[in-house]
Amino acid sequence: MALLGLGVVMVASSSVTVAQGLGLDPWHYVRRHLMFIAMGAMGMAVFWVLGTRHLRTLALPCMVLSVLVLLLPFVPGLGVEVNGSTRWISLGVMRFQVVEAVKVLMIIFVAGYLARRPDLNKGAWFDNLKPLLLVGVLGVILLRQPDMGSAMVIGAIVVGMIFLAGAPVRHLMLLMLAAAPLITFAAMEPYRLARVMSFRDPFADPFNSGFQLTQALIAIGRGEITGVGLGSSIQKLFYLPEAHNDFIFAVLAEELGFIGVLMVVGLFALLVGRMFVIGMKARQLEQLFSAYLVWGVALWIALQAMVSIGVNLGVLPTKGLTLPMISAGGSSLMMTMVAIGLVLRVAWEVRMETLKQPRQRKGAGVGWSV
Fold first, then answer.
1. Average pLDDT value for residue range 268-297
2. Residue 222's Cα: distance from chain center in Å?
3. Residue 157 CB-density burial (10 A; 0-12 exposed, 13-18 middle, 19+ buried)
4. How far is it, in rounded angstroms, from Cα 149 to Cα 146?
5. Which of 54, 114, 153, 361 is most buried as measured by Cβ atoms within 10 A of its Cβ?
């Protein structure tokens, strides 16, 4: 709730000038952001009611569905091209970035796969490879869109889930070494290579390839300790591209300063940490599917937040990834809230199961059946 509330405030602060520059109502993006939060809340409610028992039966179909959904942008008349990338489909009133739904589908599938293999640490090398084969298929499709950032995030989520399931580190190291040449080859695309070079020294070409990062660093530097004040950012006034979206963290750092940055990082750490605790409780109750599902969501939010913040701070090359629950991005916001709805459902199931156990133990001595 704190992250969502902060997101509404920062979208309002950073998008007014953008909307006016496009000839729109000043509160256009704020209203859309609130609409997406409402839609995300409805999605949370649906998946909370669905329950993990029903969700587990859908794990295998999610594998096929993730591939089909990711291919939708290539369907003529349905896919939408924006800035040279074909990542969206048109739903009439809005555009939807399909990879955000694929992240949820992948987590459900991998959680189901790992739950069926409780002794993964004793399994063959190929058992660890199987879910990564699907990641490879999705990665090829994402590179055609192109969206290497999302491909890397999905791959990292799956590797993290396999590691938490107990896969031997040596197996994962071999798999990552095998994938390294492919990742390097993909990164050698001219526009990706230009991003890497500008990331190394953005001030070498501050008005061209390094413009975004240069403006972001200026914004963060202006914030100092306490910030310039909410709504007082200068960089959002047509200097910083995507100020309400990919680079909203730079505006936040300028207006709220280092204190605001620590607050955001602390909120993400608290959220992700709590998810890992819920996952561990589910694991202790031998609810393996629920545990891996929660850990997958935690890895997703942690990795995407880390990459988004890292890009804004200039420690990672520029990627088109939003800051979860804060950036103005309807697809990401809605699917992140849906994923959190799954975590809330698991937390409720764990709590109910924990409450049952003392009653079961107490009744065992007197012949009760619960």
1. 95
2. 28
3. buried
4. 9
5. 114
One DSSP character per residue, 213-269 reads: HHHHHHHHHHHTTT-S-TT--STTTTTSTTTTTTTHHHHHHHHHHHHHHHHHHHHHH
Lowest average pLDDT, out of 38-47, 94-103, 125-134, 236-245, goes to 125-134
Distance CA 94, CA 69 (A): 17
Beta-carbon count within 10 A of 27 CB: 15
Please tell me whether the peptide bond between 61 and the residue prior to it is cis, using omega within 30 degrees of 0: no
Q: Residue 81 phi/psi, 5° resolution?
A: -95, 130
Q: In degrees rounded to 5, what are phi and psi of residue 90?
A: -90, 125
Pick the more confident residue, 50 or 123: 50
Per-residue pLDDT, 363 = 46
| 79-82, strands of its sheet edge to edge | 79-82, 85-90, 95-97
Q: What is the pTM of this model?
A: 0.89
Digit-coded pLDDT (tens) for 250-277: 999 999 999 999 999 999 999 999 999 9
Q: What is the CB-side half-sphere exposure of residue 76 using CA atoms within 13 A?
A: 0
Tokens of 140: 């090829």
- What would the pLDDT profile of 315-345 be if each residue is shown by its tens digit? 888 777 889 999 988 899 999 999 999 999 9
Q: What is the DSSP string of 141-172?
A: HHHHTT-HHHHHHHHHHHHHHHHHTT--HHHH
pLDDT at 271: 97
The residue length of the chain stands at 370
- The SS3 of residue 80 is strand
C-alpha to C-alpha distance for 66 and 102, rounded to whole angstroms: 5
